[in-house]
Amino acid sequence: MKLNFRNIFFINFIISVIVIFVVLVLQYNFNLPPCDMCIKERYPYYILIFLSLFFIYKSGNLKVNFFLLISSCLTILVGTIYTVYHVGIERGIFVGNSACSAIVETSNTKDLLAIIQNTPIIRCDEPTIIFNIISLAELNLITMSILLMLNLMSVIKNVRKR
């Protein structure tokens, strides 16, 4: 398969739509609510869908196409870095923010009640679901890594053409 603009944006679009569809089905049909970080990991896919649709609208201009491709790479790179951080929190490599940990140090019952009421039900440091020892965040990391490699290969190919 050639990694021209049309194909790479088609791949980005299809994979993004599939990922968003799957996580929404898991969330609403299988009652697997996401943590705060999982919700934020969806943002790059929404951006990729938007960039792909914009490509369809403005696909005639090579400079615009290349800008969209670079924007896709940066979006995927940021999403990959964020997902690495989430996987690190799940695996205990990194310490998460207050929404990701259950450590509470207070002697005041009013403060404790406020902390309990403001703490999300789903914690970021515990995987929601695991498929054969791979969490959803790890599956997302694999997906993002593949998308990043494909997009970078397309950038390199288009730079060599010029």
Please outline what is shown here.
The protein has helices at 5-28, 36-40, 43-57, 62-90, 109-118, 136-161, and strands spanning 130-131, 134-135.
Describe the structure.
The protein is mostly helical. The chain has one domain (5-96, 125-161). It is built from 6 helices and 2 strands. A two-stranded antiparallel ribbon has the order 1-2. Strand 1 (130-131) and strand 2 form a beta hairpin. It is elongated, with a radius of gyration of 19 Å.
Question: What is the multimeric organization of the chains shown?
Answer: single chain
The termini sit apart by 21 Å
Q: Tell me the major beta sheet.
A: 2 strands, antiparallel
User: Tally of extended strands?
Assistant: 2
Average pLDDT reading: 85
The string of secondary-structure elements, in order, is: HHHHHEEH
Percentage of residues in strands = under 5%
The global form is elongated
Structural class: mainly alpha
Count of the domains: 1
Q: What are the segments in which pLDDT stays under 50 over at least 5 consecutive residues?
A: none
**What is the gyration radius calculated from CA atoms?**
19 Å
Number of helices: 6
What is the spatial order of strands in the main beta sheet?
1-2
Percent of residues in helices? 55-70%
